[in-house]
User: Which sequence fits this backbone?
């Protein structure tokens, strides 16, 4: 697999998105979200998604430059219609608006619908944390094809329905949660397919309802298991149901699968102004103290010790900023094909084939 510097990947993603019809501003937001996921170690939501997004643009499932429409609004809430625009741009704009509202109203919330995939959820509450606020977001896939079987079932009826929260603190790196309510994100299964790898036990069942380590079975009628696996999956299912209600039913997207197969992320977002609840400086110091208290826990047998939520992503980001990011050969080939299609392969220094993909291209 080629190893590419993160800033070069950002440029590649931006140029390809502009070739697909995005404005410079929109391409920058989407590329930043994707490469940010790569940096954090979540390659499932990284540059591997760019060819999929461009394919959706070509099919009319994503509309570059779509109007951002606020259908309902008050001092404390918003209902946003993304009109099938890039979810990265729609959701980031909504989060920044909620932060401004919470500066005076202390709490603000929004629902967002009719937008494309929003990528890694942590991108958005982290903006709130950077502004000394607690950020929360949940998302589902609207009525696009489902991937997760509810506990006790063998057919996909739910999305991976992730949840993310970020908390301001005095820690050197942010404290945040970003998790799917399924055993794994569907994108992680796609990465395993791209790399020719098996998936761990407890992730996937085949169309026959039996466990499998073959990631290709997910798109052959199989399903992801809910968080908690075969024994505790009722917990993941319960969480997924609540997310579906907040992001599918409250937004008006509904449930089930639309026959068009059009991907449609629905979101519920909220921002809480910490300073309205208690002294901000004291809170941030106490969060950091709490994290250090957890990290001081004696490690269990075979463990490397306790990390606070979000710490491992920060460690991964530091390493990848320094060493570069490995990209699957198949992903690099897809990116190169698009670069040739848009006439930017020479500008980006990309080969017409996959030759040379085994060495460092930073």
Assistant:
């Amino acid at each position: 697999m080629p190893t590419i510097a993160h800033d070069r990947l950002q440029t590649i993603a931006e140029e390809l998105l502009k070739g697909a019809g995005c404005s410079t501003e929109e391409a920058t937001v989407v590329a930043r979200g994707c490469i940010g996921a790569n940096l954090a170690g979540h390659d499932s939501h990284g540059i591997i998604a760019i060819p999929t997004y461009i394919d959706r643009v070509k099919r009319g499932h994503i509309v570059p430059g779509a109007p951002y429409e606020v259908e309902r609004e008050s001092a404390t809430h918003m209902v946003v219609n993304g009109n099938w625009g890039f979810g990265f741009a729609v959701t980031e704009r909504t989060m920044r608006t909620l932060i401004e509202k919470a500066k005076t109203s202390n709490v603000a919330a929004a629902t967002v619908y009719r937008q494309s995939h929003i990528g890694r959820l942590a991108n958005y509450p982290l903006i709130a944390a950077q502004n000394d606020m607690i950020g929360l977001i949940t998302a589902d896939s609207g009525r696009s094809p489902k991937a997760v079987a509810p506990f006790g079932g063998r057919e996909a009826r739910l999305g991976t329905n992730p949840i993310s929260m970020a908390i301001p603190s005095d820690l050197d790196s942010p404290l945040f949660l970003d998790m799917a309510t399924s055993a794994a994100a569907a994108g992680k299964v796609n990465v395993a397919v791209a790399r020719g790898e098996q998936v761990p036990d407890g992730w996937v069942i085949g169309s026959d309802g039996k466990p499998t380590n073959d990631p290709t079975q997910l798109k052959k009628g199989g399903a992801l298991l809910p968080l908690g696996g075969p024994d505790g999956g009722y917990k993941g299912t319960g969480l997924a149901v609540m997310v579906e209600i907040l992001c599918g039913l409250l937004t008006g997207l509904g449930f089930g699968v639309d026959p068009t197969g059009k991907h449609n992320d629905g979101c519920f977002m909220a921002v809480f102004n910490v300073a309205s609840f208690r002294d901000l400086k004291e809170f941030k110091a106490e969060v950091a103290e709490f994290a250090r208290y957890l990290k001081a826990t004696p490690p269990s047998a075979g463990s490397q010790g306790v990390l606070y939520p979000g710490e491992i992503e920060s460690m991964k980001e530091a390493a990848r900023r320094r060493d570069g990011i490995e990209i699957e050969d198949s992903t690099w080939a897809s990116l190169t094909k698009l670069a040739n299609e848009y006439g930017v392969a020479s500008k980006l220094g990309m080969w017409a084939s996959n030759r040379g993909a085994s060495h460092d291209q930073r």
Q: What stands out?
A: The two ends are 13 Å apart (CA to CA).
